[in-house]
Amino acid sequence: QDWEQRQEEDALLIERILLLVRNVLHVPAAPTEEQGVDGDASVHDRVLWALHISGMDDLLKFLASAQGEQQWALHVLEIISLMFRDQGQAAAEHGEDTRELETLRQRELAERRARALQRPSRHSRFGGSYVLQGLKAIGDRDVVFHKGLHNVST
To answer: Per the database record, which ranges form the Timeless N-terminal domain (predicted)?
Structure first.
């Protein structure tokens, strides 16, 4: 309904709904009580998802942008600010996790380089000479084999 056609009861209902959404989003996060798995959505994120699924976010965008609905602007602004409340902390935690992973990766690369320097750099291709007893070469001598045993087929 347009604002001219709304009655006082409709305006009170809209205001109560906006206040309810604001109060639900205003509940502080309790990470110790949530006991979620790393990377799991917090209660706040799940509430935001429920608001999105219900279409409430589209309604808030409409109320924020419509000229005839300016009386709700402060309520909508407060709701939007509460929607983005924990996003800065999540980004900071993500940045901290990224730095931690990068530090671990650098440490692992340094250990790999140190292990590579400890090993001899050249590999000997000489597999040795082997005498195959029981197989006779030309004459009465045993066969002498000059390659690795993994290539021998008898």
So the answer is: 2-131
